[in-house]
Design brief:
The structure is a single chain. This protein is mostly helical. It has five helices and three strands. The chain is globular. The two termini are 24 Å apart.
Length: 166
């Protein structure tokens, strides 16, 4: 499918699951709940990057640039009680992204791990049902920030091409 496009300029891995809901201590987390979090939050992005690596490389080779953004979380860095499955999977994704970045640099592919912050989403509502929604970031504002990071990671030649096409 991507062969017809002549490459792939951007991939944003944003799918996510919490693990057990309501959130649970690791000792109370079922193995299947941890496995699901790892499958969605880590293996899914890995498989997509692996499957699309050739198309990303093709875009980078012709000067359009190629950027992969893996959406992370502060739970990847800060160990919150009850967030074990989610935090461990996002920490692994963050580290995986750093490794991809080193290994793909010679191909011209940029890999970024971005934490959009606490957002007013159904996932956040499941995790923190009594959160003050007015204090949470709107998803469309987070999306604009992610797009800004994407554009900043593209080579200037690619940005000029985007502007010319618009």
């Amino acid at each position: 499918m991507t062969g017809n496009l002549g490459g792939l300029d951007a991939l944003i891995n944003n799918a996510s699951v919490l693990g057990p809901t309501p959130l649970a201590l690791l000792a109370d987390t079922q193995c299947e709940e941890l496995e699901q979090a790892l499958t969605v939050n880590l293996l899914g992005p890995f498989r997509l990057c692996k499957a699309l690596f050739g198309a990303l490389s093709a875009s980078a080779r012709i000067g359009r640039g190629a950027v992969v953004i893996n959406i992370s979380s502060d739970a990847a860095i800060t160990p919150y009680s009850g967030w074990g499955a989610y935090g461990a999977s996002k920490a692994a994704l963050r580290h995986l992204t750093a490794i991809w970045a080193k290994e793909a640099k010679s191909e011209g592919i940029s890999f970024l791990s971005l934490d959009p912050g606490d957002m007013d989403t159904p996932l956040h509502a499941l995790a923190v049902p009594d959160a003050d929604r007015t204090a949470l970031k709107r998803p469309d504002d987070a999306a604009l920030e992610i797009i800004g990071s994407l554009i900043a990671a593209l080579p200037s030649q690619a940005i000029r091409q985007l502007v010319e096409r618009a």
